[in-house]
Specification:
The structure holds two protein chains of two kinds. Chain A is α+β, with helices and mostly antiparallel strands. Chain A has helices at 9-23, 33-45, 48-62, 64-67, 75-84, 88-94, 104-133, 156-162, 166-179, 202-228, 480-499, 532-548, 566-573, 575-581, and strands at residues 148-154, 183-187, 195-200, 230-237, 241-243, 251-254, 267-277, 288-298, 306-311, 316-318, 321-338, 343-348, 352-353, 360-366, 373-381, 384-386, 392-394, 403-411, 431-435, 444-447, 451-453, 459-476, 502-511, 517-526, 564-565. Chain A has four domains: 9-133; 143-201 and 501-581, TATA-Binding Protein (2-Layer Sandwich); 225-327 and 473-489, no CATH class; 329-467, no CATH class. In chain A, β16 (384-386) and β17 (392-394) form a beta hairpin. By secondary structure, chain B is mostly helical. Chain B has helices at 6-51, 94-121, 129-150, 157-174, 189-226, 242-275, 283-301, 310-333. Classes of the chains: A alpha+beta, B mainly alpha. At the A-B interface, α3, β8, β11, β22 and α11 of A face α6 and α7 of B. Chain B: It is found in: Membrane.
């Protein structure tokens, strides 16, 4: 919470007592008792110093999440990290350093911070509600003590002509200030020295309260999204259709309160996927310029099919979800025949690109192959070239010379045990190598349309064709709009609290025996306000303009300089006006 | 997709080099001004001390800056710099005038370089680290010059122009990238909104960083002089009192913090559009959050007893170091979704 300046009594009262009482009991600890201790803890927690400490602690606590891989972002990297660091890994894991943002310690910091925030906002909101209804504070006896102070006088010739009295001047000033956005209150209209008390800038504190409350709103929105939202990933090869059911997803992360019937059975077919690479510029040759997925979507089994375009930065909305284009690659179409001549695998194989030239990792498993199961692992190269060492590599992301470079294995793929296995990893432990670059049989090199017969009559593999695929993320977050609204509110509140000045203006009028009406005014800002002198000048201009604008002889306007720093000039300038009326 | 104009890109790089040279010369004059003015004041002081013992004490009052409570510490020694940082009729600082003029020239060439880069690429010139850095340096320079028209901030000139030179060197040496089209992930109008405000906020934070460092130097000098010690940093007489620095950098930090909040929110909206979630604790998001939190702490510190002044200045410095870390180390060495450095 940003509190007002310490010299402001009304608001900082709670904080100041919290601070002092928080320190005092050190001398008399035993007298606290249970409720006393609770009270003490609460006051500590809601004190500014603890809030600041928690805020800085939160900043420090967020850092490890960028140093260690996070399960929430990429669980596979964490698994690899644990395998690579068998000693330190489990210790780091115990400290939840791979789940920083859902860890006990991170959560406790921000929950304590938000409790502290609520404990601070609530009394302030009540105090502010009172302040809004209260009348502006009493006019100080010596306005010249105000940081900005000035006087002006209406000459007798003018007061008699326009029938200006101290009372009418005060009401006029009140009306003018009201027009300027001040809440005004006229005092002692019938007395010798009527005065106006005015105050404006309540939206500063309101903005502050809105900002902090909105942060709570953002937190709640995030929590609601986590409870009722869901997200999933799906790879769709050209020509294939995805149906929004649980089994349709490759990976699915449901929210805590997710249920199956939340999924609407819409479908998405990838008709074509077009990629455009930079061909004009040498320095960035082959850099992607555009990804465009042409889709046919259906809101339900019986709905009318629709043509839609999906691009990066341009998700499509369907069935209460948003669909995002997050990845793409090549899916070579292959046919694997087993030792008995039967087709064991046929269709596109999704490969994982490992660089900007789409050098892609390919894994093919043929569990139905007989007599032995077959496995292939290797690379797909869109534009294959062979370097001096005889190693194939890709020179271009477009498929100008598509080629599969594979090793082959026969034996037990380990899929029959019923354990889930990663489709993109081939466990070669129980397999016999048939082909590899280092074996006598050599590796398998397949151009488009070519077939390779495996050694020992174990079968064959054919590279039939080439398709592209897209990887999409599908998200549903019912609280997303709430998070946006609260964020925008927070921004608006923050701006109001930082840039609006809360100011008080007092105007006191009086009449000199010779008929002049004398006016003095003082301004006081709540908190830091470098623009207070400017406001003082504006108020003076406003008042002077009202009473003196149509004066012909400018020389008679005895305007005192406004905005003069009080500490330096105050004692000297208030004499004239004050003495004459006492 | 239009093709980029590599010829114009080369022109832009030439402009950038010329601007850097102009900035370096301006920097030399700013430093010269510090040295010369410091010597002049020293001489004036010596004469004053010899001539008249009772020089009229110039009371400086901070109008409304601190309310009635805390009184401003008396300015240490006969400072030349006004607390309100207004231009005053002191002795002519010809070196400073030349330095400012050179900075204006450098900024104009710099603006031409950034502009031609944008035209050459046919898009906003902040698509990679080189462009972010050069555009950011331009904004720093522009904000500095704009502030100069209202306040006499020439004392901070050597610092600010020095940082601009460092930024340009880092861009051309460390992050050099030929002009190019945007990859699909960056093809969004949010690039214009999100990154421009990030650049502007970072530029403001750069200025306040310079002022906070000066504030620390000045406050320790003030403390030493108040304790009767010798004035070791004579050139700091050109710099306003620590409290004035603190107040001005607070105002600038407040603006920059609102800008940073906007950057964060706009970034979240863009992240939702590009990656399907508005917040995912990506490394860049983490550090943007850390920076936000540190500066939020700074704003709160200013309203906490015992945390104003020096401690607040340290928070402002730590915040800026986080920004530098976020821009350099995180961009280059940390894996994340914001890997658009182009390096």
């Amino acid at each position: 919470m940003q509190k007002s300046e310490p010299h402001e009594k009304q608001v900082t009262l709670n904080k100041d007592t919290a601070r002092t009482e928080g320190i005092k009991p050190d001398a008399a600890l035993p007298a606290l008792g249970f409720t006393g201790t609770l009270r003490w803890a609460w006051k500590q927690l809601t004190s500014m110093r603890i809030a600041l400490f928690l805020l800085l602690l939160l900043a420090v606590a967020a850092v490890p999440g960028s140093l260690f891989p996070q399960r929430s972002a990429n669980p596979a990297v964490v698994t690899t990290y644990l395998q690579d660091h068998p000693d330190s890994g489990p210790i780091l894991d115990w400290f939840q350093l791979f789940d920083v943002y859902s860890s006990v310690w991170f959560s406790s910091i921000y929950l304590l911070l938000f409790i502290s925030l609520i404990g601070c906002v609530t009394p302030r909101a009540i105090a502010h509600a009172r302040a809004v209804r209260a009348k502006p504070p009493a006019t100080p006896r010596r306005l010249s003590r105000m940081p900005v102070y000035g006087t002006l006088e209406i000459p007798a010739a003018r007061t008699s002509g326009a029938a200006i009295t101290p009372a009418s001047a005060a009401t006029d000033a009140a009306a003018l200030l009201k027009k300027r956005g001040y809440r005004v209150d006229v005092r002692d209209v019938d007395g010798d020295r009527p005065s106006v008390a005015a105050e404006r800038g309540f939206s500063k504190e309101l903005g502050n309260l809105v900002f902090h409350s909105s942060l709570i709103g953002v937190l709640v929105s995030v929590a609601v999204g986590g409870l009722f939202g869901y997200n999933g990933q799906k790879v769709i090869v050209e020509g294939d259709t995805f149906v929004n059911t649980l089994v349709g997803y490759d990976a699915f992360t449901p929210g805590t309160n997710f249920s199956d019937d939340q999924l609407e059975p819409y479908s998405i077919r990838l008709d074509a996927f077009d990629v455009q690479f930079d061909r004009a510029q040498e320095s960035h040759y082959g850099q992607p310029l555009d990804f465009t997925a042409s889709l046919t979507t259906q809101d339900g089994p019986d709905a009318e099919p629709k043509k839609q375009i999906l691009k990066v930065n341009a998700p499509i909305d369907i069935g209460g979800t948003s669909v995002y284009l997050v990845g793409n690659g090549y899916a070579p179409v292959i046919t694997v025949r087993d030792g008995e001549g039967n087709i064991a695998v046929q269709g596109p194989v999704v490969t994982i690109p490992s660089d900007g030239l789409y050098t892609s990792l390919a894994v093919i498993k043929a569990p139905d192959a007989r007599p032995e199961q077959l496995g292939f692992v290797g690379f797909f190269l869109p534009t294959a070239f062979v370097d001096e060492q005889g190693v194939s590599f890709s020179r271009d992301p477009d498929p100008f010379n598509p080629q599969l470079n594979l090793n082959s294995y026969a034996g037990d793929l380990g899929l029959d045990g019923g354990e889930p296995k990663n489709v993109y990893v081939l466990d070669t432990e129980n397999l016999t190598e048939l082909n590899s670059r280092n074996s006598d049989n050599g590796g398998i090199v397949l151009g488009l349309g070519e077939t390779y017969d495996l050694p020992e009559g174990k079968g064959s593999i054919t590279f039939d064709g080439l398709k592209r695929y897209i990887a999409v993320d599908i998200h549903h977050d019912p609280a997303q709009l709430g998070a946006l609204v609260f964020s925008v509110l927070a921004l608006a509140g923050l701006s109001a609290s930082l840039f609006i000045g809360r100011r008080r203006v007092w105007v006191r009028t009086g009449e000199h025996p010779d008929g002049r009406v004398l006016i003095e005014y003082g301004l006081l800002a709540r908190g830091e306000d470098p623009r207070l002198p400017a406001e003082g000048a504006a108020v003076e201009k406003l008042l002077a303009g009202h009473w003196l604008a149509h004066q012909d002889k400018a020389g008679e306007n005895q305007l005192q300089p406004a905005g003069a720093p009080a500490a330096g000039t105050g004692a000297g300038t208030d004499g004239d006006n004050g003495k004459d009326n006492e | 997709m239009k093709s980029v104009n590599t010829e114009l890109g080369a022109t832009s790089e030439l402009f950038m080099l010329l601007a850097s040279i102009a900035y370096v010369v301006a920097l030399i004059f700013f430093v010269l001004d510090l040295v010369k003015s410091s010597r002049t004041i020293g001489a004036v002081e010596a004469r004053l001390a010899a001539g008249q013992a009772q020089a009229p004490a110039r009371a400086t009052v901070l109008a409304g800056a601190r309310g009635g409570g805390a009184s401003a510490p008396a300015s240490a020694g006969p400072a030349m710099a006004d607390t309100s940082m207004q231009y005053s009729a002191g002795p002519r600082r010809s070196s400073a005038r030349i330095a400012v003029a050179l900075t204006v020239v450098a900024t104009v060439i710099h603006a031409a370089a950034v502009l031609t880069r944008g035209i050459a690429a046919d898009r906003v010139p902040w698509g990679n680290m080189y462009e972010f850095c050069t555009t950011g340096a331009l904004v720093v320079s522009l904000i500095f010059l704009i502030t100069l028209t209202r306040k006499d901030l020439r004392f901070v000139g050597s610092f600010v122009v020095g940082l601009v030179v460092i930024m340009l060197c880092a861009a051309t040496v460390g992050f050099a990238t030929p002009v190019a089209n945007l990859i699909p992930a960056l093809q969004s109008y949010w690039l214009i909104v999100h990154v421009s405000i990030a650049v502007a906020s970072s530029a403001l934070f750069t200025l306040t960083f310079a002022m906070s460092v000066l504030q620390l130097v000045q406050s320790s000098r003030e403390a030493r002089i108040a304790a009767g010690g010798p004035d070791k940093a004579g050139f700091m007489r050109l710099v306003p009192p620590a409290l004035s620095l603190e107040n001005l950098s607070y105002r600038l930090n407040a603006i920059a913090f609102v800008g940073w909040t906007f950057t964060l929110i706009a970034g979240a909206i863009w992240a939702e559009e590009a990656w399907g979630r508005y917040w995912g604790w990506d490394t860049k998001e983490v550090w943007t959050f850390v920076i936000w939190t540190v500066y939020a702490g700074y704003l709160h510190a200013r309203a906490t007893k015992g945390w104003t002044g020096t401690r607040a200045a340290w928070l402002s410095i730590v915040g800026y170091l986080c920004i530098v870390f976020n821009f350099t180390i995180v961009n280059i060495y940390f894996s994340g979704l914001h890997s658009y450095s182009g390096v």
